[in-house]
Each structure stands twice: as structure tokens, then as C-alpha cells.
């Protein structure tokens, strides 16, 4: 039995620029299977090699897998469907199994509407996939007994019982990085030998527009709003492997709530310093946690932290509270100032497109961002991602004017507000982007005000991406 984890050919998301990176979920699942079973495991990363669909099919013919696994979020799901259709046409006997956020949010719809997909993993994948592969070895497999699986039975879509989450993430093996072409990866256009890693799962927040806190099987209430993290020591083990064996220089920590626990961050930093590891890292953090962790900033910088993403999202404390964010504007400002004082750059993310947004409100939001003065920023247009409360509210509403998932990328207005058309929202997003990056003092600070040369490289990338983002906002481009 052989499984191939496949990343199909796909475009680059406008906000990332020319990025090629490991899909962390594949690396973790592959390691788990290698440790727990005798299944052969292979990886094919088409974007890393810049493969066409024909080259993808040729490689599959060489690898000869029995099962192909693909995972993705909503924005890229059309790439998975296109690849699956071509694979089924040429290799009809290969079983195709999909997982990840989109398929977890829409397992029934995915199986009903896409016959090229044979199975869907619902929820956390390690144990479901292991049991699925073992069962698939049998002449007459019984998939009903495998929790967390969706498939067709007698022409009808079946979802098995939900699966409990893994409580101790430290019990998982280190990701199987040896299966990936590390030398091919580049991040944000200017960072060579940079990879994405994930050190926690879930989120304790309750943002109505976000899927992260409810990304696992929502049929089990205990799976919702749960955060679990690797220990600081285990994160350092992963970093040490990548730095010493593969020469990785930069980590983009993809957690939605990396700074959930101060003691975990401190343990990680202590381990990095003690082991004399030299690399840079960035992460997304909650602003309310930043305000409580200011004492850690010097140690974080010493351990290699150069950049953090901070969610600003709205212009008043009341608006933040209505969005489910337990933060205040003053906490955000204090966190940004203290991070800069400790030689750590910041990128503020701002969101527009809420139902009550008008031009004046959005311009006040832009003014607030200017006053908070992060070094970089991204404008995110509200998207009702499948799996969110917002999706449940809007999926059947005429307000949602665009339902093509290719445009669920936070760079396109999918619906009007009470006062603004989609075109007006896109125009304001382009204006905010242009206005923020017109301040030469801010640009010079990024280019020359931080000790890490990677910060200046990141600035150059964001400036490049800013022009492409404007194409998205104004011309409707989906991928670059």
C-alpha cells in the first residue's frame, strides 16, 4: 500500500507573492504513518517544482500510489478538484482522499458535487488516516467503523462518527521533512530556505468571521474553541532539525494563536538560546496576549523573532467586541510600540466589508491604522468562509453575490455592505493600501530601522505585493 500526499499545481496568493513552502499538515501526517504503519509514503509538491498538470500526471505514473491525499483551504479548492478530475481520468483505480479546512467544513457537499473525490477526512487526520489505510488493505473494507470519515455507500454520502482530538501534540513524531525538497522553498519572495511550521492547533478565540477556532469536527462540542500546543522544547526540537540538517534560515509560524501561553514561548526561546541555534522567525499573535507578555519581548528577539502579525481588524473597542475579539485599541497600540522598542517589526491586519461599513467608517479605520503605526499592513476584505458563523448566516442569502471559491481570498469583495457596493469596497481597499505605503518615513524605518536584514527584505516584498494587491482590488485578478 502506498499513499502520495499531493500539492497540485496552483497559482500564488497575491498577499504571499512568490512563495513556495512545505504544507505542514502533509509533513506531520507522513511522519505519523511512517512511525505507526508499514505503508509507503511519498510526497509530490508541484508548486515547488513548478510542475504543470501533465508533469504531475507523469510523476504519479512513476510513483504509482494506491491512494492520493490532498488537503487545502477554500481559496485553493478548485485546484484540488481540477487535479482530482485529471487523475481520475488517467488513473481511475487510484482512490482520492481529501482533508483540510475546506473539506472539514463541507464534507457532504464535496462528496455530492465532486464524484472524483472518493473519501473525505472530517476533523483531525492522523488516526483517521492510519485506520483508513489499514482498512483499505482488506479485500472487503468496512469504513463505517472508522471515525472521522466521509464517503459514498450505496450511492449515498455517509459520515461516520466524529473523532476525538489528540490531547498531547508532543506525542506526535517530528514532521517528515526528509520527504520534501527543502532547497526549493522560498518565502515572501525574498527569504530563501524558509518554511512554514505549525506549533499548535485550534484557537481559543470566537471571531465570527474565522474558521480556525471551529476547524475540527463541530459535531463534537468539545472540539470547538479548543487550543492545543506543542511544548516549547518540542518546538525547539523541530527548529533544530530544520536548521542543522536542512539549513533552514527562516520560519513562518502559521499558528493562529502562537502566543496563547507565555510559558510556552519562554521555554521555546530558552531552548533556542541554550542550544545556540541561529535562525529568524515570525508569527501571528493576539494583541491582548502581547499586552501581557511585554516582558518576554527581549528574549523573543534574542531567540530570533523579527516580525509579528497583529490583528487590528476594527476601529473601536465596541466593534472589536462585537466581532468576538477580546482586545482593545489601547492594548494593540501598546503591543506595537513595545515590539518596535525591542527590534521586532509588526504587520497590522485590518478588515473591511462589515454590514455597517460605510466610506467614513472605513476611512476612520485607515486613520486608526496610521496612528497605531505598524511597519506593514494588509487590508483584508471580509469573507464568509465555509465553517464560520458568517457562512451559516450568508450562504443562502442574496447578499452573497459571488460564490466562486477562487475569490474567497480576502482580496475581493464578495458582498455589498448596507451602504457600499462591492466595487466601492474594492476601491476603498486599494486606497487604504496605497495610502499606508505612501509614507516614506515608514518605508525607510522598515528598510533601515531594524537590525535584521530579513525585515528590509520583507518590506521590499510587501511593497511589491502592494501593487499586485491593487490589481486584485480593482481588476478582479484572483491569482498571480
UniProtKB/TrEMBL annotation:
Q: Which CDD domains match?
A: Radical_SAM (cd01335), radical_SAM_B12_BD (cd02068)
Q: Does the keyword Methyltransferase apply?
A: yes
The cofactor required is:
[4Fe-4S] cluster
Occurrences of domain B12-binding (ranges): 7-143
The Gene Ontology CC terms held by the record are: cytosol
Q: Which UniProt keywords apply?
A: Iron, Iron-sulfur, Metal-binding, Methyltransferase, S-adenosyl-L-methionine, Transferase
Q: Which InterPro entries match?
A: Aldolase_TIM, BchE-like, Cobalamin-bd, Cobalamin-bd_sf, Elp3/MiaA/NifB-like_rSAM, Methyltransferase_Class_B, rSAM, rSAM_sf
**GO MF annotations in UniProt:** 4 iron, 4 sulfur cluster binding; catalytic activity; cobalamin binding; metal ion binding
Top-level taxonomic group: Bacteria
What range(s) does the Radical SAM core domain occupy? 189-423
This protein's name: Uncharacterized protein
Q: Which organism is it from?
A: Velamenicoccus archaeovorus
The upper taxonomy is: Bacteria, Pseudomonadati, Candidatus Omnitrophota, Candidatus Velamenicoccus
